[in-house]
Design a protein that fits this description.
There is one protein chain. With 344 residues, the chain is of the alpha/beta class. Helix content is 22%, strand content 21%. It has seven helices and 15 strands. The chain has a seven-stranded mixed beta sheet, with helices on one face. The chain has a four-stranded mixed beta sheet with strand order 9-10-12-13, with helices on one face. Strand 6 and strand 7 form a beta hairpin. Helix 2 crosses helix 7 and helix 4 runs parallel beside helix 5. The longest helix is centred in the middle third of the chain and has 19 residues. The two termini are 23 Å apart. The N terminus is likely disordered.
Length: 344
Amino acid sequence: MAERCWCLVVTLCGVLSAAAFGFKCDLYEGSWVYDDSYPMYDSSKCPHIRKEYDCIKYGRPDLTYLKFRWHPTHCLLPRFDAEEFLRKMRGKKIMYVGDSISLNQWQSMVCLLHAALPSQSNISQETINSTTTVTYEDYGVSISMFLSHYLVDIAEEKIGRVLKLDSITDGDIWKENDVLIFNTWLWWYRRGEKQPWDYIETGTKILQDMDRMAAFHEALTTWANWVDSDVNTEKTRVFFQGVSPSHYNGADWNETGVTNCAKETLPISGSTYNGGWPMAEKVVEEVLSSVKKPISLLNITRLSQLRKDGHPSSFNAFKGMDCTHWCVAGVPDTWNQLLAVALG
């Protein structure tokens, strides 16, 4: 019997019910398999890729990393169909909200769509403040990226820049969209010059610093309360993306002594990752379980942990070692395949 998923119903944990066959199909449990029909587009023809993620343009010599498809254990993940996606989303506004990992995924999505549309398609792009939007005029579909490192606010005050764990003022912009995909984590442990705030406000207290995981938890709780109080989930679908892993510790994939992803050209075989489950992801899942309104977790953490080969490493415009972001084309395309299935 062909492996197929019928009656797809998304739950918080990303489990899809295949009721017709009497088993549960988890699209996030599986392994990476070689597939010569991949990648789904030629990155050199996509005009939207930032120089941090354009690995082939900046000299990556091995291309095998492009040839892997995510294969769930008990079903098939449908190949991304750009025209079908745009038809289903006709007239809707989709927004990614988060840091450079969200930007990574947004660029993947617009490349997936760009590759499938005729060259004469009516497509426009504009950037206003923190938001860049690509609009597919023939379908009335817009795909936006709203840059927000923490989701909660950073305000300029007399004492300096204050990270306000209890405040979200951009929500009035976000909630006008039909689909929201949130992400935050990468910036929570930034210090020194890379830290974009001087103080943290929590409740009535102003602190120079605090336990960063506790701050992350509090900010996510503020976001969760905002969803419950401000978002009309009958109009707007809300997704939160799981923590995207980095690969700087070879012990996580049985290569003790390795300190980056520079020489990694293949995914981890199978579905087991030695590095364990990130504490930040546990916080995400705990907070999301408290939300009363319907939301979905794009649980991309484990499948991305298996892709130690998917990062730019030194093949970016800055030549710095980057084992945090992802090549485009690459792993974020799978994240968007999963999003497309979740949207139905």
